[in-house]
Design a protein that fits this description.
Blueprint: H1 2-31, H2 34-51, H3 54-73, H4 77-96, H5 102-118, H6 123-140, H7 145-157, H8 166-181, H9 184-187, H10 191-206, H11 210-223, H12 228-241
Helix pairs in contact: 1-2, 1-3, 2-3, 3-4, 3-5, 4-5, 5-6, 5-7, 6-7, 7-8, 7-10, 8-10, 10-11, 11-12
Length: 245
């Protein structure tokens, strides 16, 4: 009986810690506190070494996905390469732990996409690998919103010469949002969901669906008034260009 109580308490503490990390990552994304984001990943890595918790490892991989995307966007190539190596190792560990699922394949496709930005000369091969990983994710679970988000990102950012299309990306962003919103758990303090909404707003704007874009940006601000990227950049610039929308 004492052993069971101790085990239950330990599992409860692990769940609380995992949730704390999710909330902290979310707040870091909202306020663009990327140094804190990096520190959280270090703590998550240490905790995983102590617990071997596959859920925590997936959360760490998802955090690396977000942080790697930011590093690529600010052209910190060396650090981005280090994160990609770490993510590759963590994906292998998740496979060993039996978590070779749609979410992991979705992120795998995204990491190949980041690699393309770091190594443009390898774009044909990496692009194929990215697409194959995304197709695998959708095959494993057609209702996984992360897979639709990455499909949208691929279409949006892929050069036209390789089949990219901002117009083609819009339905996938819409599908991803719909699937995220079908589960309250996937929308509550989830930075990936908020990023997906922002991606949809940007895609609407770039495809001249200005009323729809304005509606999405306002929805984001209703959900999270402190979302710095939208508050200080996306929505003000949109309003300046498209007043009344």
């Amino acid at each position: 009986m004492k052993y069971c109580l101790t085990l239950c308490l330990l599992l409860s503490l692990l769940a609380v810690n995992a949730q704390d990390y999710k909330v902290e990552i979310y707040q870091s994304y909202m306020h663009e506190k990327m140094d804190h984001w990096r520190d959280l990943m270090t703590q998550m890595e240490q905790d995983f070494q102590n617990t071997s918790d596959p859920d925590l490892l997936y959360d760490l991989l998802e955090a690396e996905y977000g942080y790697a995307g930011w590093l690529v966007s600010v052209k910190r190539k060396k650090e981005a390469e280090e994160i990609l190596l770490s993510a590759k190792r963590h994906m292998a560990q998740l496979t060993e732990l039996g978590r070779d699922n749609a979410r992991v394949y979705s992120l795998k496709g995204a990491f190949f996409g980041f690699q393309i930005m770091l190594e443009p000369a390898r774009a044909p091969k990496l692009g194929r690998l990215s697409m194959e990983a995304n197709e695998k994710a959708l095959k494993l679970d057609p209702d996984e919103p992360q897979a639709w988000l990455e499909k949208a990102n691929m279409d949006y950012y892929k050069p036209v010469i390789f089949g990219g299309s901002k117009k083609k990306a819009v339905p996938s962003y819409e599908k991803a949002v719909e699937l995220f919103e079908s589960s309250e758990e996937r929308t509550r303090e989830n930075w990936v969901y908020m990023n997906c909404l922002a991606g949809l707003g940007i895609a609407y704007e770039k495809t001249r669906k200005f009323s729809e874009a304005g509606r999405v940006y306002r929805k984001i601000l209703e959900l999270e008034p402190s979302f710095k990227w939208v508050v200080e950049e996306l929505y003000p610039k949109f309003q300046e260009k498209h007043p009344g929308k």
